[in-house]
Design brief:
- Strands 5-4-3-14-7-10-11-13 form an 8-stranded mixed beta sheet, with helices on both faces.
- The protein has helices at residues 2-38, 68-106, 110-123, 127-144, 168-175, 179-185, 318-327, and strands spanning 157-161, 199-203, 207-212, 217-222, 225-231, 234-235, 243-252, 256-257, 264-265, 277-285, 295-297, 308-310, 314-315, 334-338.
- Helices cover 39% and strands 20% of the residues.
- A hairpin with a 6-residue loop joins β8 (256-257) and β9.
- The chain folds into 3 domains: 2-84; 157-203, LysM domain (Membrane-bound Lytic Murein Transglycosylase D, Chain A); 207-338, L,D-transpeptidase catalytic domain-like, CATH 2.40.440.10.
- The N and C termini lie far apart (79 Å).
């Protein structure tokens, strides 16, 4: 009995100690909560919003394990919240830069606007900004690249004077562009006859491409400047290989054999799945190295654009593949495919 009484007395003292500790911790927690609540009325620095769950750091370390996670959570929330002004600042800087480009356009300074737009797009923009900038660059290219006008100081184009012995093929090879592009830009009615001394607008090629698989998007670039952008279809289950590809061959009105069934589709066949144009590719870098049989082509199924439905090739709408076919040069143009 005496032993039990001593044990009971010791147990009671421990219980009373724990109760007192719990009360003390509760008082500390309540005071901190009151401070955090009253702090809601205090003006915060611009862009920094106090988390409703944030708890001020206690003046003395709280021994209770139940409070430690709350303090750590508060610190994490404050750290995350503190990042918001930086993101907002970055977005404001991007918007400011794009506005600078538009201001340059309004002043008639197309080349400055193009440089700012191109740099912004290449540096990476939020999705909601990318489409707008691509549109701006495409409109600029209509004038600076795909019309007869040569902007003063533009390093991407020039006037060329036809010399004796020149043909469209000779001139095109010199500038790494296609004869069809020269004829179209200069509105030539007879591609086989060039008068000596005739001024022609030429572009400094080659045109290259970049496919963004996640966005189902193909950008056409000239010296790093996006000049056209198209929606594409890609391979089922992500089967379009990433990496760098070289344009190996080009065929208008191609025939095609389905590798799954060995069924052959003749040129001019209305049900030819690859459409009217084929641009054959050869893998030269990354996961594409050594791969052949892949290409960029048209389609007779417009609903496949923006989806993964091909055997691994890049599909474009009929009018889009015609434009790309006119720009890509065998042995010079490359295509980067990225995730």
């Amino acid at each position: 009995m005496a032993l039990w009484q001593r044990s009971s007395s010791s147990t009671i003292r421990v219980v009373w100690f724990l109760c007192g500790l719990a009360v003390a911790l509760s008082v500390i927690y309540i005071r901190q909560h009151q401070r955090a609540t009253s702090a809601k009325g205090v003006a915060q620095p611009a862009g920094l919003v106090a988390s409703p769950h944030a708890i001020e750091k206690p003046e003395e370390a709280a021994p209770a394990a139940s409070i430690v996670p709350k303090v750590e959570l508060a610190r994490a929330e404050v750290a995350l919240t503190a990042l918001n002004p930086r993101r907002e600042s970055s977005e404001k800087a991007e918007l400011s830069g794009l506005q600078t480009a538009r201001d340059a356009l309004s002043r008639g300074d197309a080349l400055t606007a193009r440089r700012i737009f191109a740099d912004a797009l290449n540096a990476g923009l939020p999705a909601e900004m990318r489409e707008s900038v691509r549109g701006e660059l495409s409109k600029l290219a209509d004038t600076a690249i795909f019309s007869q006008l040569v902007l003063p100081g533009d390093g991407l184009a020039e006037h060329y004077i036809v010399s004796k012995g020149d043909t469209l093929a000779v001139i095109a090879k010199r500038f790494k562009i296609t004869p069809d592009l020269i004829a179209r830009v200069n509105e030539l009615t007879n591609k086989d006859r060039l008068a000596v001394g005739t001024p022609l607008k030429v572009v400094h090629g080659p045109f290259c491409g970049r496919v963004f698989k996640q966005d189902f998007r193909l950008d056409i670039l000239l010296d790093g400047v996006t000049v056209r952008s198209f929606r594409v279809g890609l391979g089922t289950n992500g089967s379009t290989p990433t990496g760098k590809w070289l344009v190996r061959d080009k065929l208008a009105n191609p025939g095609w054999t389905d590798p799954r069934t060995n069924e052959y589709y003749h040129p001019d066949a209305p049900d030819n799945p690859i459409g009217d144009y084929w641009i054959g590719l050869e893998g030269v870098e990354g996961d594409a190295v050594g791969k052949r049989g892949f290409g960029v082509h048209g389609t007779i199924d417009p609903s496949s654009i923006g989806r993964q439905m091909s055997l691994g090739c890049v599909r474009l709408a009929p009018e889009d593949i015609e434009a790309v076919f006119r720009l890509f040069v065998i042995g010079d143009s490359t295509l980067d495919i990225v995730d």
